[in-house]
Amino acid sequence: MTPVLTMVIDDSRAMRLILKRIVAQLGFDVVESANGKEAMDYLAGILEAGDDSKLPGLALVDWNMPEMNGLEFVTAVRADQRLRNMTLMMVTTESEQSQIVRALASGAHEYVIKPFTPDAIIDKLTLLGLVPNGVAV
Amino acid sequence: MSLTAQEFAFISGLVRRDAAIVLETGKEYLVEARLLPLARALGVPTVSEFVNYAQRKPEPETHRRIVDALTTNETSFFRDGEPFNQLVTMVLPDLVARRAANRTLKVWSAACSSGQEPYTLAIVLQDALPAGWSFDIIATDISSEMLERAEAGQYSQLEVNRGLPATLLVRHFERTGASWKVSPALRKAVTFKRLNLAAPLPAMGPFDIVFIRNVLIYFDVQTKRSVLQRVASTLRPDGWLFLGSAETTIGIDDRFERVVAGRTSAYRLRSAPKTVPANAVGKG
User: Fold this and answer.
1) Is it the case that residue B264 has pLDDT exceeding 50?
2) What's the pTM?
3) C-alpha closest to that of B159 among A108, A1, A113, A104
4) N or C: which end of chain A has fewer CB within 10 A?
């Protein structure tokens, strides 16, 4: 399995830790951000330095966050051609059907509703082709 | 207080007789965990006392509940992923060519548990079959409680998080309160029936596709053989069989041959005609 540099974007430190532990078991390295703005600033820094190999391949994105929320982050990433290889997965308590549709239409590839089990994250990453079949944590 | 050897023997004997499932020594913890809710429901404080009660008063209803509690298995939408990919890329093109004359497929989801497998099949068939085709899914399980759940088609947030792509969730389910309900179209595509795989089958089929996944592993070789024999008799000569990833027909029933498909396998009868009939429409 190819390790994927993963951004965990959530304003809850506890939630970042939980998600980080799950993907760390897959051997993925993690960059944490407390909101969409912080995450965009991080990405802008890498793009400015011109080192595309350091771009994250995956972002796990909360919805409700200060400064820049998850939906705004997804929209901003999708608007930037240079970030087209990033896989975006919402991980949020927002569970209305219309919200899921909106997130997918804005460019999120997957959507996990909190609360979740570690298996749910692994399952979705498998669906996205980032984890081979049959991996359990 | 944990189960005595005699109490465990009674339960394993019961499950073996009624469902042909082998509970080996060492599975006492499983029996205790699964039967505790039943004991509580009857106001009996321990599983041990509940088992003694069931032995003293052999009521069919109590026995059925015990078998139910011990035979329900973990499941999820698109379980293991790959069999459903192969269904779309290998099996459906083959069957679409072979069934061009009547444009309909009959599918059996055996040991369907709480319904995730038959609904996954309904989603896949609805999306992958060409326009003008229809399909019929029969889903069976030994547990009445599981069938009730499956028929209701209502799943918790945790269940829909497992294995179900978000695009399919919003397309095929409706959110109702804290849970998600399958769409009427999906619900209509599946017929549920109680069925014990270890007993002779009622008249059913013939099927184009049979999914009987992660159930043979619980049976002894003799029962595996007779289940596969019954499955073979319900399968069309050129139909397809899917087993769990840890299961095989090899060494159990020679009438089947394995067809390796990507990272998984499907099975068909050796006697199956290998070529699509020359008059088939949409061949190749």
Assistant:
1) yes
2) 0.80
3) A113
4) N
